[in-house]
Please model this.
Amino acid sequence: MPGLVNGVILRLTFRATMGRRRALLFALPAIILIAVAAVLTATAKSGSWQAEFLGDFGFSVVLPLTSLIIGTSVLGAEIDDGSIVHLLATPVPRAQVVVSKFAVAAALTIAFGAVPEYLAAAIAKGPASGLAVGLLAGALVASVIYNAVFVMLSVLTTRAIAVGLLYLVVWEGLLANLVPGVGLLSVSQYSLSVADSIAHYPALHAHLTLGTAVVLAVIVTAGALAIGTRRLARFSITGDA
Amino acid sequence: MTSIELRGVTRWYGNVVAVNDITMSIGAGVTGLLGPNGAGKSTVLHLIAGFLAPSRGELTVAGERSWRNPGLFRKVGLVPERDSVYSFLTGAEFVAATAQLHKLASPRAAAARAIAMVELTEAQDRRISTYSKGMRQRIKVAAALVHDPEVVLLDEPFNGMDPRQRLHMMDLLHDQGARGRVILLSSHVLEEVERLSGTIQVIVGGRLAASGDFRAIRRLMTSRPHVFLVRSSDDRRLGAALIGSPAVSGVELTPRGLQVRAADYGTFARQIAVLTRDCGIRLREVLPADESLESVFAYLLAS
Model:
């Protein structure tokens, strides 16, 4: 997407995000995931824990939390401290700002969330196993969609982390599992359905067909980025003097 | 000729009117926006820069509306008030990145030129996080000038600058203004804009209170009636004596002392000591009651 991505913003965002001490925070969930997978592989007796652990803990906790930390920081941190004004006081189209920062966020989440998910599955079941490949595919999808949503949130509100946590805990965590139909609007369901189409594990609790999941994933991603762009185009500096 | 035009511009937030019915035209040269804190200077600058939408009225910069028009930044440079810049970058990297975002043909050369203008060449390879406040201001100015804009907006640009740096910055801005650029800067300190050769627009309480060159504004401010609080051994007798002087336009007995409104500050200052001596009254205290910048501005607004 040459027209939507700006090389300068990609570089600046990458340096800004990795330079903050938050970068250490990104790695923490991943380290825990891989360590627990290694321990369970060595000690567990039954054969179905992998899908449950990697699906539930990996997809419902590690990936979304990593996306939340990264996705809300690539743009949100600059909006909070006001440094975004330097970027916005240039002729760069707002869509390029949003999409470029989203691209960095998705790439970092893949590195710190999707790849560890794959490594954990590889430790548990083998690197070429259906589970490992399926979970990688699902994690890639989740990294993309979650970051589109969280980048959008960081433009809409200064409380993006709180709102994002609420969304993850209440919507994805509770309602998506309890209320039928909510799965149609659940990012974890889209990604689990993609994973399950390759892995075929009922323990992943995927309820959507692949076709439905992919279409909805594209709509949510594009929609979130469009809303974020529209809102950034109306960015206002308010208050004092 | 490039200019900034405001016609009846108003901006409110709920019940609060931040800027009220401002009409002004700003052309080439340096124009100062002067006013106390909270007067609306930053609001005016943000409206002009397109970072706020007017609630009412019309605003154009170089003939174009600024709201939701990022392309206008090809002609406009902004130095925001907030201190935050990408502090992990060096000065040179920051200005060069800005040049690249403006799609300049030779971003590094343009950055070097802009950094030389603000006298930061020696520090350009240091991280901005190591810069003093004055240096941060200057690197922000360099980034705002790198693309050679027709209009430059500066929000409290002298914050953190020592007098020498302020003088140099003012000379730089004058030079840019003399080349036909529209330079608009805001300040709440009269002395900061005293070397301004152009127009000063005084904003108080969201309204345009006065407009003119520095000397005219200063005259308006110093020729206003001054209010003093005088305490003596006999305030009533002193009041009766003072009201006979043409330099005094009013006296009022208050529990805190005698409130004297002096129409002619200089004459009053010379006469009060003589008067009290001639009347055999002991003068205890003479305090100016309205020397704050806010009361000065309020007077301008009221008149």
